[in-house]
Amino acid sequence: MTHDASFVDLLGRTARADPDRVFARFDGAPMTFGLLHQRSDALAASLRRLGVEPGARVAVMLRNSPAALATLFALGKAGVVWVPVNARLRGDGLRFILTHAEPRLAIADADLVPAVRECGAVPESSLLVLGGAPGAARLDPLLDGGASFDEPPPDGRAAFAISYTSGTTGAPKGVVVTHEMLRLAGEAAALVSAAHDGDVLLVWEPLYHIGGSQLIVLPLIMRVTLAMVERFSASRFWHQARATGATHVHYLGGVLQVLLKQPPSPLDRSHGVRVAWGGGCPPDVWRACLDRFGVEIRECYGMTEASSITTYNDTGTIGAVGRPVPWFTVEVRDPHGRPVEPGERGEITVRANRPGALFPGYFRDPEATTRALRGGELHTGDVGSFDREGNLRFHGRMTDSVRCRGENVSAWEVEHVAGVHPAVEDCAMIGVAAEIGEQEIKLFVKLRPGAHLGPAELSAWLGERLASYQDPRYLAIVDEFERTPSHRIMKHRLSRDTTGCWDREAQAPKPR
After folding, report:
1. Predicted confidence band at 2 (pLDDT cuts at 50, 70, 90)?
2. Domain assignment present for 477
3. Dihedral, 86, 88, 90, 92 alpha carbons, nearest 10
């Protein structure tokens, strides 16, 4: 690995030396280093002509595509700060990010333009559209303009992205991700996956998620190829792995559990995949995947604030998330800040051994930055313990958020939207056990006096205003909440039992 160059500079180096080498394949169609370099150069030059200077912010709401990949590298080359936006966001959630980030431009897929326009946070003159939309400027000609871009690459400490992660008891926070941090995220992905030259990594994760964007570094630091598909599909997963020649697959949330729920197939053992790597694999699922799919499970732990990956398990110790990557020191501390003994639980803290490995702060949120970065350490808000062999084990989150379908969902986000309904007086969200994945969302609602609102009607209303991963599965109408002296709802007293709750999935039509 070449440590003296930024990842965007590595693209240019390889493109000049070996332009026909394949960087990625999108549903089988190749994207060479030469073409990726050329298209990202053209867009970077166009951004300058449009007056987008280094340090300016550009929001990008694109699904995975060759254009999305070129856009990401163009922003990096131009020193423009990428604001990745989940393509499923809408309403208040989308409005908050676009208002808080104040992007100079917004780039979106054509079918997502109505959601961007509806939130009203981006002027029409600042919108670029992939594929075209009435009244909007098109992105496609800017990618195909053919202009070169000769400015030197940004410094490693320069901001590459502002990645909005769900808050715990407040609004989402924008994690400032530097060029160096994304480079380290890619190097950590190489460690976790144990990929080698010639390997093929199946990529289903969206690039707007750190789990996807970190992978763009891998072809730059070793001779691997990304096999990119439109989205995760449980029924087609092993077919796609075999068709693409994948040697490695990535998992998040309940992906492995979903795959285990599929009917047995000859492809369960004839797919060619050696390694499944990622985060969120319970011990029982670990063993089941080993037995059924014959793949090595390599688990890791991390968060965007710490260059995505903090520890990784390369020993096969079932249930552990392993030991720190070389640029971090990890400790588990008690409420007084003292390291705990092996086997005892406490808060996971992370200290950087390499300058720039930890994030510099949250965008426009100094108070949250001060809470997270204390004493030279990142206080993760996660609970962990070390075993006597020095392996970290993850036990959940201390904060008021839920991990649902691979995404962190803050209670504040869901409660803020539900509380807008005219019939709702107050509400509270908690996480409950899921059949597949980490957790499901249960929302408790107290109605205003005299109001009448059924769970089905409320669920339909919420579904129009929340992303699919934020939409509560369970709804419970309550007469009153137990509260603290300061009038806070005592969430620990709310029932996590879902028996008798209104269940959104139970209402869905059964397949014939």
Report:
1. very low
2. yes
3. -60
